[in-house]
Amino acid sequence: MQTASNSNTTGILLALGGGVVLSLNDLAIKALSGAYALHQVILIRAIVGITLVLAVMWVSNAGLQQMRTRRIGAHVFRVCIVMVSNITYFVGLSLMPLADAVAVAFVSPLFVTLMSAVVLREYVGPRRWAAVAVGLLGVVIMTRPGEGVIQPAAILVLISAFCYAASHMMTRRMRDTESAMTLNFYVQVGFICVSCTFGLLVGDGHMAQAPGSTWEFLFRPWHVPPVTDWWAFVATGVAVGVGGLMMSQAYRTTEAALVAPFEYIGMPMAIFWGVVVFGTWPDATAWAGIALICGAGLYTLWRETVRRKVQDVAAPSGDL
């Protein structure tokens, strides 16, 4: 029991640490969104990230053999989903206060519940359906329809959350044959390929949008960043690489239902970075949306924990 307790403590600490480290990725990309093209940022981040992945592969027991796969088509499809999720999230992030964007993104556990019912045919009880409805109400509040126009940035982040949930569904379908390192490696390869393609097609700036427009971050021309900005570029890659590995280790060694709620450390971190770095504090509307989305997400995770405990008790008696 002591060993299990230590393992759970380690998993929780890894999840908390991973959440804090990953929040630096949002901070760095938000800081870069005013001057650089998104695909340039993602390319440099992916180069740093794949370097870290290859280094970990090299020193691990399985070595570089982890790059091998027989499911290249599934990897391509998953990479496309992750790419859409990243593009829509970071474009939305460039237009919204940091805390608002992170709050809307945290609706993804509710989408996972929805997809579990529709795609995986898993049973979802009335309480979790109610949590989904409450969370989506929070999203509606965050889009601020009462201001006369629905905020497009919030819709983009909502699309990102949906795609993020879909990528989790793909991961669950692939986890029996693909390791976490293999999944991470092909995502980074996909980022590099797509970013280079974007750079070749629009990197000269001929499709640049007007300042303040929705897609300005996506179609800016590339340019060599000064030394003073390299910290942010490197921080994106290191944060995703290190934070991702910490989260993977947390989920590998500890029950997912126990670890998942601690990912919500990203919400107070987003508020903290927003206040300290960007001078933005959530207004009353944002606080209402944050409370509904995070509350619904945490309740959904709690109900999942209860459901799994019931299944664990019932299974030996033949009830499942």
Structural account:
With 320 residues, the protein is mainly α. The chain has helices at 2-32, 38-59, 72-95, 98-105, 108-118, 126-142, 152-174, 180-202, 216-219, 230-253, 256-259, 266-278, 284-314. The longest helix has 31 residues, at 2-32.
In short:
The protein is mostly helical. It is about 75% helix and about 0% strand.
Main attributes of the structure:
320 residues, globular, disordered C terminus
What is the succession of H and E elements? HHHHHHHHHHHHH
Task: Please state the CA-atom Rg, rounded to the nearest Å.
Answer: 20 Å
Shape, principal axes of CA atoms: globular
Number of continuous helical runs: 13
Structural class: mainly alpha
Please outline the major beta sheet: none
Span of the ends, CA to CA: 27 Å
The residue ranges in which pLDDT falls below 50 over 5 or more consecutive positions are 312-320
Number of strands: 0
- Assess the beta-strand content as a share of residues: under 5%
Give the helix proportion (percent range): over 70%
Give the averaged pLDDT, no decimals.
Answer: 82
Task: Give the helix/strand layout.
Blueprint: H1 2-32, H2 38-59, H3 72-95, H4 98-105, H5 108-118, H6 126-142, H7 152-174, H8 180-202, H9 216-219, H10 230-253, H11 256-259, H12 266-278, H13 284-314
Helix pairs in contact: 1-10, 1-12, 2-8, 2-10, 3-4, 3-7, 3-8, 4-7, 4-12, 4-13, 5-6, 5-7, 5-13, 6-13
